[in-house]
């Protein structure tokens, strides 16, 4: 294993030195970042399932709700505002990479405006230029759900907004003209100023957009009362009446919900959620009430379904060869050379580990295993120990990545649990844990994919995996 990586790396180094005639090579950052839009000049990272094959990097956790402050977002309420009011906010002195600027970036805003232009950005966002007529403009952006991490409380709303926009327009990589009235709901966000089309003078945006409604607005406000966290039990009927009010009289509200636990549905006319839960787990539910003018309000909450009485049958460790100590891959599926006992990348424990990438050249390694999660258990926990070392020197760009994904039996990606990169390098192993209760009673595939670019190695080393149900 060590010899294989040293040989391949040596070949790349020799080729570079021979071509350049010098002892070191300077890599053009713009080329490595995936050809972002000329006007944006933003770094992107490869994501095969995204609309452009890429996702964003700069303040990406804040843009998509996977940052350290995501729990502070006021999803239970919406603040009515205008572009002029948002444009007038003072720009912050600095923009933290993984934290929010309170209170603006903790607030869900709704505004009525004109959508003048839109396009698909290199980071797979839909870039919407909004105008209020008197000359105030700002940007709103809808991320690609494939670029949103599994820990984001915004996921279902982003999916909804993306679907709403797709139902009306087909964005391309060139700006298209719309000039239609819209009502946009989204989280406040300050962006760096880098020449974006339609950017506000203070860099304020709605990112991520959680809802977009097309049509002339009367200025009505719909407010949905957040019912708070809900619980239920598999096999036991339950119901929840959603309460909403409209600022205008004589309006009829239509209800819809996304993310409901299996077995539950909402009555579009009354807002009553009812049914008998079929699967244990925790869901992020978003309820939307819309009046006849197109004005809408939302509320997002969690709904935990506990297993039926009778205990957890078939619990315990569900992965085979979890520490790779057989010295072979089975029942894992992987490409040659991943199962490793080299002293260059020692294991967390025992004698063997799984070493993905580390070549210093364009390369992809995968490691996957199909596993059945029994129904009726209380917890479904995935844990693993991860070590990352790298020869990359950047402190900002994610050139090499490792994704942890859940696929169904057909090979469709159900969720990306995490994405690690050369920026996450560490001096030892760190434990990573994930909640897989959503997939109780299903056969899923756990898949790791390591992607390395053309120079400067990054090694992703995995050991002592565990997927336990109890």
- Structural class, from helix and strand content? mainly beta
At the first level of CATH, what is the class of the largest domain? Mainly Beta
Strand content: 35-45%
Instruction: Give start-end ranges of low-pLDDT stretches.
Output: 1-39
Helix segment tally: 5
The assigned CATH architecture of the largest domain is Sandwich
CATH superfamily of the largest domain: Galactose-binding domain-like
CATH topology assignment of the largest domain: Jelly Rolls
Strands, total number: 28
- Return Rg in Å: 24 Å
Compute the number of structural domains.
3
Query: What is the average per-residue confidence, as pLDDT, rounded to a whole number?
Result: 87
Shape: globular
The helix content, as a percent range, equals under 10%
**Major beta-sheet overview:** 6 strands, antiparallel
Span from first to last CA? Answer: 37 Å
Please give a handful of descriptors for the protein shown:
mainly beta, OB fold (Dihydrolipoamide Acetyltransferase, E2P), globular
Explained architecture:
With 470 residues, the chain is mostly beta strands. The protein folds into three domains: 153 residues, Nucleic acid-binding proteins (OB fold (Dihydrolipoamide Acetyltransferase, E2P), Beta Barrel); 85 residues, Immunoglobulin-like (Sandwich); 154 residues, Jelly Rolls (Sandwich), CATH 2.60.120.260. Helix content is 10%, strand content 39%. Strands 18, 20, 21, 23, 26 and 28 form a six-stranded antiparallel beta sheet that branches. The protein has a five-stranded mixed β-barrel with strand order 4-5-6-8-7. α4 links the parallel β3 and β4. The chain is globular and about 70 Å long. The N terminus is likely disordered.
